[in-house]
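In this supplementary section we document a worked example of the pipeline. Step one takes a protein sequence of length 95 as its only input; no multiple sequence alignment statistics are reported here. Step two produces a three-dimensional model, which step three serialises into structure tokens for compact storage. The input and output of this example are shown verbatim.
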Amino acid sequence: MIRVVCKGKLKPGVNVEEYLNLAREVVTETRKEKGCIMYTYHEDINDPSILTTIEEWVDEEAINQHNNSEHVKKLVPELRKLRESTEINLYREVE
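The serialised model returned by step three reads:
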């Protein structure tokens, strides 16, 4: 299993709800994908302009398929335009 943590900071003046409307579409479609165990969006308690996606995938192939899906290719570039920064980290569980 691979866990992905994607943390984004919205640009000043970006409406959080407008951003989340696009993000929710990504969440809905991604949860239907083969290999997706979990895909959730989180808002920072102290700063609502910081949004983090926490994902769990069965393997790297599932992540690659996700990254090449139509909804990701269509919506993620639009989301990126609204963020001033993005940090993506992939993790494997340590036993």
